[in-house]
Write a structure and sequence with these properties.
It is built from six helices and ten strands; from the N terminus they run βββαββαβαααβαβββ. Helix 3 packs parallel to helix 5 and helix 5 runs parallel beside helix 6. The chain has one domain: Rossmann fold, CATH 3.40.50.300. It is globular and about 50 Å long. The protein has a six-stranded mixed β-sheet, with helices on both faces. It has a four-stranded antiparallel β-sheet with strand order 2-1-4-5, with helices on one face. The model has no long low-confidence stretch (mean pLDDT 92). With 226 residues, it is an alpha/beta fold. Helix content is 31%, strand content 27%.
Length: 226
């Protein structure tokens, strides 16, 4: 493992047994993520992208192999420790935003901090809102926001907890072309400003123009673009 490696998967496999014919979602997949790196993983629907992200985010477990966070295995941990990792170390940006409709944008962003017993740094969060261009959304509810604004709030929520890595699952899937490009640019900018590590899965290859590196996944096999 290199010194700046944040998250690493070693020879992980995952097979689903939902029919008479087992479906191999991931096949001997190894990958590392470095500090401050924006990685884009591209592949068509059903290629194994979301499976990989679920395994990296402790939402599912591989059939074989290992996953390490800062050099330590995160498999077979007690439930309490897995919950802590999800609260403090692994930030998620889902495709469907997953904002609480009864809370304002600001309240949605600080909620994970409060649930973890942390005091939010208002100035720092203001800076995140400014970086993402959503300062005007601070006191608005999700229903009052556009899809692009909601997705930026979801990104702000992930950044606010200072996770070791942010996992973004098709974050532009529900957006039009203009907003999709804006979100990708903002994720790239977040890497630069906050030295944040981000891994994003997508079917859209235009994201590659803003990534530090691009990997392709097809039929469960992962390869790095050169």
């Amino acid at each position: 493992m290199r010194e700046n490696t944040i998250l690493e998967a070693r020879h992980i496999t995952r097979t689903y047994h939902t029919s008479s014919v087992p479906a191999e979602a991931l096949k001997d997949c190894s990958i590392t993520f470095e500090t401050g790196e924006f990685t884009v993983i591209v592949g068509p629907s059903g290629s194994g992208k979301s499976t990989l992200l679920r395994l990296l985010g402790t939402l599912d477990a591989p059939d074989s192999g290992d996953i390490l966070l800062r050099g330590k295995s995160i498999l077979n941990l007690p439930d309490a420790e897995v919950s802590r990792l999800r609260r403090q170390e692994i930030g998620f940006v889902p495709q469907d935003y997953s904002l609480f409709p009864e809370y304002t944008a600001w309240e949605n962003v600080i909620l994970p901090l409060r649930l973890d017993g942390q005091k939010e740094n208002a100035e720092e969060i203001e800076d995140i809102f400014s970086l993402l261009g959503i300062s005007h959304c601070r006191d608005k509810f999700p229903a009052e926001l556009s899809g692009g604004e909601q997705q930026r709030v979801a990104i702000a929520r992930a950044l606010a907890i200072h996770p070791a890595i942010i996992l973004a699952d098709e974050p532009t899937g529900n957006l039009d072309a203009e907003n999709s490009l804006a979100v990708i640019q903002l994720l790239s900018r977040a890497c630069e400003v906050y030295h944040q590590t981000i891994a994003m899965v997508t079917h859209d290859r235009q994201s590659a123009d803003y990534a530090d590196r691009v990997l392709t996944i097809k039929d469960g096999w992962l390869t790095e673009d050169v």
